[in-house]
Specification:
single chain; alpha/beta; N-(1-d-carboxylethyl)-l-norvaline Dehydrogenase, domain 2; NAD(P)-bd_dom_sf; Mannitol_DH_N; tagaturonate reductase activity; EC 1.1.1.58; 6-PGluconate_DH-like_C_sf
């Protein structure tokens, strides 16, 4: 079976949408990973089809090496397949789409590719620059120089590209930063201006970046597991498609891309103009970040450690258990969403929460609970504690599910202690399964030192530990007593019973 290419698709009589190979290159994209290709480039592809924008994406690998990726995907005309697999509105989704939005992949650590990147920089066709260089990508590296070909850091590469474009007298561009850090666009622009200062470049260039370019903060949300790992399943998919595709990517149906900007920006983005679901321009993405952290991430952190203690191993199985699913939904609809009403539309939050349940019930992803439990102390502090405090402030009472989640979190770290090792706290849950709890060293040392302690003493010492929580949680009226009682239920009757009690 042949690899996907324009020629292969013609041979097999492919009838789906394909953008012509020679369409103008309107997008320069820093990053070539599964997320960008399955999420951002799929949006461009669908926007092309819906609006006739007809723009190709030039992918740029932001780090040295991995030349095999660029050569491999270029050999198949930069075509690849995205499988959308999961649940949507309770229904199983398993759909494929050939993405034809990409034209080529460059690695600027090769001289010819660096030169080609700079040719794109000064092109009259270029309108948009996109990036996802991981959370570590938007960072200042003082070793970068103006004449590096290329400089090591992504912001230095980008400011080189923009300076070359400005020097050629070309108009500004839209920059869409997709890295998972707060205020990603603002931070990217700040670091680029630092390089302008370091390198003694012109003030006029800084003004051009500020006034003629639009560097956007964005918020992205979808799960992209990547490739199909089971060889038999991969072979069956290839047989169904009619071609081999070593760059096929799998993602879930849910998608959200919030882009900070005004209405004029929305008119310039083909996927927004097309009205594609899940992507929008908003004056401020901050409330949507809060929604994601408190509903999606907060749900994970609230029910997962207790579910592990109860004997579950993967997220999907939790969604098939009436008590665990009920605990999560009671927490979201009765405790979390009411605290978001001041900043967000309540019905929109409810729809987001319903989508979360579908996402957790994805039949194609075996999401291990133990992997989610990594660094759960800091996660609970960032994701669940703010909601608990807001709920208490607004109602004068404790949110039972969130308070119970703190008890089950403590239970996760205080199952039968096997040993404290360099890689974490080695524990054994009630069914005999041994596991390693991984967290900050001070957290693990704390729980190791409290092994065998009376639960009332344990809870008091946990809640009053300001290094864990940034404050003394025993000062929240009734919380300490509630957690002691809930932990007693976990010890005597199991975490599921504690979850059930919280819903009563």
């Amino acid at each position: 079976m042949e690899n996907i290419s324009y020629e292969t698709l013609e041979k097999i009589g492919y009838k789906g949408y394909l953008l012509p190979k020679d369409a103008p290159e309107k997008v320069l994209q820093f990053g070539e990973g599964n997320f960008l290709r399955a999420f951002v480039d799929r949006f461009f592809d669908m926007g092309n089809e819906a609006t006739g924008w007809n723009g190709k994406v030039v992918m740029v690998q932001p780090i040295s090496g991995a030349f095999g990726f660029a050569d491999g995907i270029n050999a198949q005309d930069d075509l690849y397949t995205v499988l959308v697999r999961g649940k949507e509105s309770g229904n199983t989704v398993d759909e494929s789409r050939v993405i034809s939005a990409c034209s080529r992949c460059l690695n600027p650590y090769r001289e010819d590719d660096y030169r080609a990147m700079m040719e794109v920089a000064v092109s009259d066709d270029l309108e948009i620059i996109v990036s996802n260089t991981t959370e570590a990508g938007i960072a200042y590296d003082p070793s970068c120089k103006a004449d590096d070909m290329p400089p090591a850091s992504f912001p230095a590469k980008l400011v080189q590209v923009l300076h070359t474009r400005w020097a050629a007298g070309k108009p500004g561009v839209i920059v869409l930063a997709c890295e998972l850090i707060d205020h990603n666009g603002e931070e990217l622009l700040r670091i680029m201006n630092q390089y302008v200062s370091d390198w003694g470049w012109e003030d006029e260039f800084s003004q051009w970046m500020a006034n003629d370019c639009t560097v956007c903060t964005t918020l992205v949300d979808t799960i992209v597991p990547g490739r199909i790992r089971d060889p038999k399943e991969a072979a069956a998919v290839a047989e169904r498609l009619g071609y081999e595709d070593p760059f096929l990517a799998v993602r879930e149906p849910f998608q959200m891309w919030g882009i900070q900007g005004d209405e004029s920006l929305a008119e310039k983005l083909p996927f927004v103009k097309a009205g594609l679901p899940g992507v929008f321009v908003t004056p401020d993405v901050t409330p949507y970040k809060k929604r994601k952290v408190r509903i999606l991430n907060g749900a994970h952190t609230a029910f997962v450690p207790g579910s592990w203690v109860a004997g579950f191993d993967i997220v999907r199985d939790c969604m098939h258990d009436e008590i665990v699913r009920g605990f999560m939904n009671t927490m979201l609809y009765d405790e979390v969403i009411p605290t978001l009403a001041a900043d967000l539309d309540v019905e929109d939050c409810k729809a987001f929460a319903a989508a979360v349940e579908n996402r957790f019930d994805n039949p194609f992803i075996d999401h291990a609970l133990l992997s989610i439990c990594l660094n759960s102390t800091a996660k609970w502090r960032a994701r669940d504690l703010p909601t608990l405090k807001d709920y208490v402030a607004e109602t004068g009472s404790l949110p039972k599910c969130l308070a119970t989640s703190l008890a089950t979190l403590i239970a996760f770290y205080t199952q039968e202690l096997v040993s404290r090792e360099g890689d974490g706290l080695h524990l054994r849950r009630a069914d005999g399964t041994e596991y390693t709890a991984q967290d900050d060293a001070f957290v693990l040392d704390f729980y190791a030192a409290h092994a065998g302690a009376d639960d009332a003493e344990l809870v008091h010492d946990v809640l009053s530990n300001e290094q864990m929580w940034g404050e003394d949680l025993t000062q929240i009226t009734g919380l300490e007593e509630f957690v002691v009682n809930a932990l007693a239920v976990v010890r005597a009757e199991g975490a599921k019973q504690a979850f059930a009690n919280a819903q009563a």
